[in-house]
Amino acid sequence: MTDQSDRDTWMMRAQRRPITPGTPGTSVAPEAREALERAAAHVQGGGLLVVPTDTVYGIGALASDPAAVARLLAAKGRGRQMPPPVLVAGPDQLAGVVADIPSAARALIETFWPGALTLVLTAAPDLGWDLGETGGTIAVRMPDHPLTLSLLRSTGPMAVTSANRTGEPPATDAAAARAAFPSGAPLGGHDDGFEGVLVLDGGPTPGPVPSTIVSLAADRALAPVVLRHGVLTRAALAAAVDPVLRAAGASPLAGAMDAMDAMDVEEEHKGVGA
């Protein structure tokens, strides 16, 4: 386990690192602020919100609101066995959410966040969220999109899955997301006065390739496994993490994954969600 003071210092340092090249930071145009305020209020009130990311559009809810997460899963057409990943505004929002940030995870965060990398880590033992059947893990990502990062700064972590019904293609623009989740429509049989889904329009997204998912939970801390291939290549991941693994006497990512049994990867992926 990482010393708490060391972890807090690292989180603050990582949070101060600049946004990746090509991204206009977390600042937003003045005309977008009203939309962000409305979106944040909707989420904090238990509503579902479609948001743009650096891969595809997602639909999400406040991660700490179990009723909202249940509506999210129902809207998606997904059961509790597929818990949604959680989007954060930065490494500082992982405090109290994950039990630890292994050194290999730190290397990946420092290299690829914000960006198309989802990390599966061990959840904090006293985390009171109900995201579904997580098996004690949580999938987290910092998206590289200024609107959504600004939103997350206001709302805190959000449970977000791709903005499409299960089995349908992901939405890469606001119009497709609206078509999948029309505002005002009852969601998952809930007739409780819920107002429907709001859409935060951030323009077209680069999709449809999703984020890359890497597990470093529990005994994977020094034996990371790629659960889903996406935007980031395995070679890029290995370049960032292998020096840390070698320094700890562990096998490099470049060789470890080839030996994995395909069924083991599939079973672990079931607990990740989108």
What is the end-to-end distance? 28 Å
What would the principal axes of the Cα set say about the shape? globular
Which second-level CATH architecture applies? Alpha-Beta Complex
Question: Which percent band covers the strand fraction?
Answer: 5-15%
CATH topology: DHBP synthase
Tally the structural domains.
1
Give the neighbour order of strands across the main sheet. Answer: 7-1-2-6-3-5-4-8-9
Counted beta strands:
9
Structural class, by secondary structure, is alpha/beta
Mean pLDDT equals 83
Q: Biggest sheet: strands, sense, closure?
A: 9 strands, mixed
Radius of gyration: 18 Å
Summarize the helix and strand pattern as letters: HHEEHEHEEHEHEEEHHH
Classified by CATH, the class is Alpha Beta
Note poorly predicted spans.
9-25, 184-194, 257-274
How would you classify the quaternary structure? Answer: single chain
